[in-house]
Amino acid sequence: MSKLTKLLFIVSLLLLVLANSLFVITEFERGVKLQFGKLVNNDLQPGLHFKIPFAEQVRIFDGRILTVDAQPDSFFTSEKKRLIVDSYAKWRIQDVGTYYKATGGIESVAQNRLANRVNEGLRNQFGDRTLKEVVSGEREELMTNITRGLNKTVLQNLGMEVVDVRVKRIDLPSEVSNQVYRRMTAERTKEATELRSTGKEQAEKIRASADRERTIELANAYRDSEQLRGQGDAEAAGIYANAFSQDEEFYAFMRSLNAYKSAFANKGDIMLVEPDSDFFKYLKNQDGS
What we know:
The chain is an alpha+beta fold. The protein has 3 domains: about 5-60, no CATH class; about 65-180, Tetrahydropterin Synthase, Chain A; about 250-285, no CATH class. It has 8 helices and 9 strands. The strands form 3 sheets. Strands 6, 7, 8 and 9 form a 4-stranded antiparallel β-sheet that branches. Strands 3-2-5 form a 3-stranded antiparallel β-sheet, with helices on one face. Strands 1-4 form a two-stranded antiparallel ribbon. α3 (about 105-125) packs across α5 (about 140-160) and α6 (about 175-245) packs across α7 (about 250-265). The longest helix is centred in the C-terminal third of the chain and has 73 residues, at about 175-245. The protein starts with a helix and ends in a 5-residue tail after the last helix.
């Protein structure tokens, strides 16, 4: 073996040893170091690290916030009503050494154990509350209590921190959902009927008030119009009387001419009057005598 070959072999061996000796922990990761299977460093900080090849082993885990989606489960309220609850939890690794010892660093094992504890916490919280409180009244308080209760045990036993627990959906069992639906429908129908009755009553009151105001307005308008008409007729009669008193003969002549126009407007009309009637006095002479 030549010197060059030996040198290349030594360099390759050094590079192999160096490659197996250096490793990097990013800011998104958490890790532990094992020496012959024994935990020697339970929290590797982000950065470049060194390990003894073949003697030491490194386990790296995701240090970000993860989600565990629990399977829907049945819970009973304080009223002994069964509910189907679908929930999820947000968690992250807090104590890397405890997490590795409890789960072996297997994420699926950690997820299953946390999901079981989430369901257990939900079961306890639901058992202390009524259906109304669970669905609407105390939802936020319920989630806060579950998160606080889980962190008291999960952090110590699993090395995990529960960031948040949320309920995605709450369903009634199929055998009672139809009954509840029918009852809700009946209640809403009753409420709608009451609202319609109230609306009709108010509509009748408004309509009666409007009719009364309309009648009053019409009566006042008729009264005002009659007064104005009477005043107009009185003024017209005064004007006619004044004009008639100034020239009675001319006024009588004009009235006769207007009567002639009306009487002879249609050629087919027949009128029987005596020849010496006053109706034709202005046809005899201009003085009407």
